[in-house]
Amino acid sequence: MTRFDHADDAATWLDEAHRAGRRYEPLPDRFRPADLAGAYDIQRAFVARLEKRGRAVHGWKIALTAETMQQMVGIDRAVGGRIAAPAILESPAEIRAADHGRVCIECEVALRLGRDLAPGGAPFAEGEIIAAVDACAAAFEIADDRNADYATLDAMSLIADNAWNGGMVLGQIHPPADPAELAAATAVLEEDGVEAGRGEGRDAMGHPYAGLRFLADEMTARGETLRAGDWVLTGTVIRTRFPAVGQTLIYRHSLLGEVRARIV
After folding, report:
1. Is 36 exposed, middle or buried (0-12, 13-18, 19+ CB in 10 A)?
2. DSSP β-bridge partners for residue 93
3. In sequence order, what are the beta bridge partners of 209?
4. What is the tens place of the pLDDT at every residue in 7-66?
5. Is the Cβ–Cβ distance between 214 and 78 less than 8 Å?
6. What is the mean pLDDT of the chain?
7. SS3 state of residue 181
């Protein structure tokens, strides 16, 4: 049950904007929540509408892990969203630009849960988080900013709009990696054979498991359960890219292999 009085109306407004292909804009004042609880209420109602339209929920994402992005939208923390897409794409993948307002690509470590993380368990201990993971992979998050004007962003509207998730591209699945090795692992992104960015595992919230721990504490406190089988995108370790139609991207992770995608 939603707590924010206008959650359903705001979710309907968002769903109509997406279906009509409208450019992103912040929620109208009459729908805009004043706090995180209200923003997540809208997100929950909006994702339910996406599911009714065939966009299955495959897990969770963490957004706004970079301090610069937090400052831009006026918040002092990362936030969560759902991975909602008709299907998880497998590398090598083709990403249809026409299915999105504007494709944004982020290079992440995806962790798969082997057990539920449920309300009442927070704050989760580091060991509980590590033990809950049964697989990991390099992955692209497909985000969709719908050609947003970044000067007008606000955190509550971004959260309500499911933190802009548009799906994911999953690389080869591996058993859980050693936490210390994951933190030090290197990541390199190429666009059409030219290096476009690089980073390390610690560049997203210090560690992929730290991101999962944050998300588990954040979402279970709001009554959500992170379920066995869910994938969790733990935050980009390379600055977001905005590839054009025809470009090929290759993300190489020193532990987890590579992910390839072409924008068509």
Report:
1. middle
2. 261
3. none
4. 999 999 999 999 999 999 999 999 999 899 999 999 999 999 999 999 999 999 999 988
5. yes
6. 94
7. helix
CA distances from 43 to 15, 32, 159, 164, 227 (A): 11, 12, 7, 11, 18
What is the pLDDT, as a whole number, of residue 112? 98
- Sheet with 248-253, strands from edge to edge, namely 93-95, 257-263, 248-253, 186-191, 194-200
Closest by CA position to 65, among listed 162, 163, 177, 149: 163
Give the global pTM.
0.95
**Does 77 or 164 have the greater pLDDT score?**
164
CA distance 117 to 18: 31
Residues 6+ apart with CB under 8 A from 180: none
Query: Given the DSSP bridges, would you call strands 89-90 and 165-170 parallel, antiparallel or unpaired?
Result: parallel
* C-alpha 220, offset from chain centre: 17
Give the whole-number percent of the chain exceeding pLDDT 70: 99
Find all residues with CB under 8 Å of 254, minimum gap 6, and list them: 185, 186, 187
Contact 110, 168 (CB under 8 A): yes
Please give the torsion angle defined by the CA atoms of residues 83, 86, 88 and 93, in that order, rounded to the nearest 10 degrees.
Answer: -120
d(CA 242, CA 97): 11
What is the rounded distance in angstroms from the CA atom of residue 101 to the CA atom of residue 89? Answer: 18
Q: Which residues pair with 112 in a beta bridge?
A: 135, 231
